[in-house]
Design brief:
heterodimer, A: 720 residues, alpha+beta, Alpha-Beta Plaits, 5-stranded antiparallel sheet, 4-stranded antiparallel sheet, 27 helices, B: 294 residues, BirA Bifunctional Protein, domain 2, Methane Monooxygenase Hydroxylase, Chain G, domain 1, 8 helices, 43% helix
Chain lengths: 720, 294
């Protein structure tokens, strides 16, 4: 290729070239890189559009030491534009001698156009002068030199710093800049650094030598020669291949972990996966502890035996270097992990010397929240609430209540163990391990383990009944307590993740089909918080329960949208109909399902239109309601509607409490012809007050019948 | 390489970079950052380069000499470069080579680790440096000290001397380190750990420590209140003392979680005031170290 004559490329001068920008930095936090690259691309796109520079594709790439961007096929010149400005009217622009007036001269000067080039155009208002200016595009290089510093300075990060007297803020110091258009350097200065065509390779493998770049196209290749794989996707592939090869050879299976993989991709320039080992003896420690220690402290993947699925005494590390002999690196990593696991094993063994029940008193030294007392207090409240919930659930036996209360009375004790002190994310898990060790029943241990499930919209829910009850009690107590003192999420502020807790409550109840009255449970939770002597807001008494219920209903709405995809108005119709009485989330969802199903029926829209007419009338009109008197009917349509309504009413009286919502809705839909007939034949507001009152009372009965199922006034008639 | 040779080499290397080889400060402190050669010198416009060993006391980290990696008394090697030079990372890597760590044969990583000291009202961004997965150094670009935004920015490098020596000597317990060819770290410091832990966790006299904290705080404030006299340096000494008294109380479990933040805020208030006063005093003195630097 290199020997071919280059005549052709020369003869037709290229109108486009590639842009290469590289911001060379000291090691960025790995989580910052992908978002910064996205932002860099967006800003570059905006710049090029604003500056009328045509371009092909934009590619970004980066490592901890560089954020890079290539624009392919970038026009050498801005697209020319024609700018037209209207000036004074022709009549005011020239005097009788046809000489330009001051107005015309001034206008021409302002727009930098010669008098003779001003155009006269006919407009709706008459003839006017126009300055028509063709702006030839500037060279891309000039535009880029002017604007690239702004693009770089426009990158934002969660945390920034200053490092020299340029005053520029960035996530870490900028140490070099590459900016090239085609093979020309774009010499701008930024943060005390002059852009050039030189970059640095890998700290070690690249030998610290500067690499002279020729153009964007060869950038990734030249960097690779310098020990840097600049494209994150290529690093991902490479790590995968390396891991797969090691797993194949060793007969081990990787414990997949996307977080760790991302960390490996974005904290390396030249990733090399390597297999390390630890002593079999550490396998006595629960695998969650070993895996957490490997992941959180060292960023290592865990491995399992292919045949048994059990944790293997090995780990996968991803180093940021490559050499013939990686044994020194492996040995170093093994030694560090050894010390970590020795610590974990020590804590684990030490923890088991003290029974969980003996740790409980220590919880009075642990603050739950400054305004909400200690963990000991919380645990006691949760215990009593769990007992209450267990008693509320219809299918419950005495045993379940005892299991719940026992689990609750130990639930928080693991917070004062060594392992949980080291790894807070193992709370619950360690409690369950230690509970079994103390000789507690499997049910109690499982409930302790499951108390923090689910973590949010994702993740599994508790599987045992006691686990569900404990998890509910823990969350409901937190909601009741925080709301009591006025710590309520607002906008994006939710420091105690109360939304997630409410979502967990919804998921546990709905997914496990728990039928219980949530209002009475929340009332109980609030009552326990008050009894604990926690000073609440002045108005907490009057609407404390209602606020918590509304907060949970808000999460229910969200859940129904995301999980079931119910229509917004269907959700609203059912949720808005919730009164102050009992509240059964499972039942609400069944109602929504039934309602959502009938929205598809052809007569549904017409029924809603009819209902809304009824609803509007009885809300708007003034009259004295009395029992409907059939002898006062004057039209068949009235009697027909009355008969149909009575039939539907009788049915609803049975079907709604029985939860037979399909039947109820069928009966309501069956009213449609009668309602339509009524409005066609009957005038409601007639002179005769007795007749009018009777008609309005009939409509009121209809209205109430509908509302007894859901708030149909929320339904939006679609497609009309 | 013995433990003391490691220190000699680091001192020699950084002396060659124009650092004042300071001596440890003669007071108990939790980190080398408390040394006036860092905390105060990082303030204001005067250039400064210094390196020193600082014995550090962290009462809650004591393990009675039973844990091979945790100590309530250990040695940091501290380097401060103000302004932080552009090649500060390279200088650091060269210092590793000087003490015998051929970083080309290892995996050296700069992993994000942002530093914050609520007690000193200070924060900065930087890394922990890992050598084959082991944290050996803390690297920080200071942004604020005593609540004062810094300009120029100081680069701080804090070597974990024990960690590095353990690596070089291939030992798994800090107590097995050779301090010299014939004396081990155990010979010098095992008993320090046993007795120190005993005092910190069991014997510290809480009412006395409580009294000391208050007395140190009061003395610091009294000195700072004398605006007509320059007394910031002794005032800062009492700020250091108050901080250590707090650490001892903390180790004795005498401070509840709720009270903790309150105590920390009290020390921070002292540190802030000392920082502000120091800047005023140096300005009044005409920034003596600006001489000759243009």
């Amino acid at each position: 290729m290199g020997d071919l004559p280059r005549k052709r490329a020369r003869s037709s001068a290229p109108h486009v070239s590639d842009l290469l920008l590289e911001i060379g930095v000291e090691e960025l936090p790995y989580q910052f890189i992908a978002p910064a690259l996205t932002l860099l691309r967006e800003m570059m796109e905006r710049l090029l559009k604003d500056q009328r520079l045509m371009f092909g594709a934009i590619r970004t790439m980066g490592t901890p030491r560089r954020l890079s961007l290539i624009v392919e096929g970038l026009a050498a010149q801005q697209t020319a534009t024609v700018k037209e400005t209207m000036g004074p009217p022709k009549s005011a622009a020239f005097d009788q001698a046809g000489q330009p007036t001051k107005a015309a001269l001034g206008f021409a000067a302002t727009h930098g156009v010669a008098i003779k080039d001003l155009e006269v155009r006919r407009t709706a208002k008459g003839e006017y002068l126009f300055a028509v200016k063709r702006e030839e595009g500037r060279h891309a290089s000039a535009v880029l030199i002017e604007w690239l510093p702004t693009v770089i300075g426009g990158l934002t990060f969660p945390k920034t710093m200053k490092w020299n007297d340029s005053g520029v803020r960035f996530a870490r110091p900028i140490r070099w800049l590459v900016a090239m258009y085609g093979n020309t350097v774009l010499p701008f200065r930024m943060a005390g650094v002059m852009a050039s065509n030189r970059t640095l390779g890998h700290r070690v493998v690249g030998g610290g030598r500067w690499i002279r770049l020729k153009h964007a196209a060869s950038y990734p290749t030249l960097l690779e020669q310098g020990g840097v794989i600049v494209e994150p996707e290529r690093r991902r592939e490479l790590i995968r291949q390396q891991i797969d090869a090691i797993c194949r050879e060793s007969g081990l299976v990787l414990h997949e972990d996307e977080v760790l993989l991302e960390q490996a991709i974005y904290s390396t320039e030249l990733p090399t996966a390597l297999l390390g080992s630890f002593k079999e003896a550490y396998l006595d420690v629960p695998e969650e502890v070993l895996m957490t220690s490997m992941k959180e402290h060292q960023g290592f993947f865990s491995l399992r035996y292919k045949e048994t699925g059990r944790l293997a005494p090995h780990f996968m590390a991803v180093a940021n270097t490559r050499m013939e002999d990686m044994s020194l690196v492996r040995a170093g990593n093994e030694r560090v992990l050894e010390a970590r696991l020795a610590d974990a094993k020590f804590f684990f063994e030490d923890d088991r010397k003290v029974r969980l029940s003996e740790r409980v008193p220590k919880l009075s030294g642990v603050t739950f929240h400054q305004q909400l007392g200690t963990m000991a207090q919380k645990q006691e409240r949760v215990k009593r609430l769990a007992g209450f919930i267990a008693a509320c659930l219809r299918s419950t036996s005495e045993d379940l209540r005892l299991i719940c209360e026992r689990a609750a009375s130990l639930a928080k004790a693991d917070l004062v163990t060594g392992i949980v002190g080291e790894f807070p994310e193992l709370q619950g898990i360690m409690g369950s391990v230690y509970a079994l060790h103390d000789g507690e029943s499997a049910e109690v241990a499982m409930a302790i383990r499951e108390q923090y499930l689910p973590k949010g919209m994702e993740g599994e829910c508790p599987r045992t009944e006691a686990g569900r009850i404990l998890a509910l009690a823990d969350r409901l107590d937190s909601l009741a307590a925080f709301f009591h003192v006025g710590i309520v999420p607002t906008g994006s502020e939710d420091p105690f993740a109360l939304r997630r807790q409410a979502t967990a409550i919804v998921r546990i109840i709905v997914e496990a089909d728990l039928r219980a009255d949530l209002t009475s449970i929340v009332t109980k939770a609030r009552h326990l918080v008050c009894e604990d002597g926690i000073a609440g807001l002045p108005d907490a008494e009057s609407h404390g329960v209602r606020l918590v219920i509304e907060f949970i209903l808000e999460r229910l709405r969200h859940y129904c949208r995301v999980v079931y995809g119910f229509r917004e108005d269907v959700i609203e119709a059912v949720v808005k109909a919730v009164g102050d009485q009992s509240l059964d989330l499972v039942d609400l969802i069944r109602k929504m399902k039934a309602l959502q199903a009938v929205t598809a029926k052809p007569e549904f829209n017409a029924l809603i239109i009819g209902f809304k007419r009824v609803h509007r009338l009885v809300t708007k009109e003034q009259w004295t309601r009395e029992a409907v008197d059939a002898t006062r009917f004057q039209h068949d349509a009235e009697s027909r509607l009355y008969q149909m309504m009575t039939k539907a009413y009788e049915l609803a009286k049975v079907s709604i409490p029985a939860g037979e919502y399909d039947r109820t809705l069928e009966a309501l839909i069956a009213l449609k012809p009668a309602i339509d007939g009524f409005f066609t034949e009957v005038l409601v507001n007639v002179e005769d007050q007795v007749v009018r009152q009777n008609r309005l009372s009939l409509l009121k009965d209809i209205d109430e019948l509908f509302l007894s199922f859901a708030d149909f006034s929320q339904i939006v008639v679609q497609g009309s | 390489m013995t433990f003391q040779e490691l220190i000699f080499k680091l001192q020699q290397f950084w002396a060659e970079q124009g650092c004042v080889i300071h001596q440890p400060y003669d007071m108990e402190m939790g980190a080398g950052t408390f040394h006036p050669a860092t905390f105060l010198r990082a303030l204001g416009p005067e250039p400064w380069r210094s390196a020193y060993v600082q014995p550090c006391r962290r009462p809650t980290d004591g393990r009675y000499g039973d844990n091979p990696n945790r100590l309530q008394h250990y040695y940091q090697f501290q380097v401060v470069l103000k302004p932080a030079p552009d090649n500060i990372q390279d200088l650091y890597l060269r210092s590793l080579a000087r003490v015998g760590i051929d970083y080309k044969r290892h995996d050296v990583r700069f992993m994000q680790d942002d530093w914050e000291s609520p007690t000193l009202g200070a924060w900065g961004l930087g890394w922990e440096v890992r050598l084959d997965g082991m944290e050996i150094t803390q690297f920080t670009y200071f942004q604020e000290i005593g609540g004062v935004e810094l300009s120029p920015v100081t680069g701080e490098i804090t070597y974990g001397t024990e960690r590095i020596a353990m690596y070089l000597q291939h030992v798994n317990s800090v107590f097995d380190l050779a301090w010299t060819d014939s004396i081990t770290y155990r010979d010098l410091h095992h008993e320090t750990e046993v007795q120190g832990s005993r005092y910190n966790f069991e014997e510290g006299d809480v009412p006395m420590l409580m009294h000391l904290f208050q007395a140190y705080e009061a003395e610091c404030k009294r000195l700072l209140a004398k605006v007509d006299k320059r007394l910031t340096l002794p005032a800062y000494d009492y700020c250091i003392k108050a901080s250590h008294a707090f650490n001892l109380l903390d180790a004795r479990g005498a401070i509840s979680v709720a009270e903790r933040t309150g105590y920390i805020a009290r020390v921070r208030a002292l540190a802030k005031r000392c920082a502000e006063r120091y800047i005023e005093e140096r300005a009044a003195m005409g920034y003596p170290l600006l001489r000759g630097s243009g």
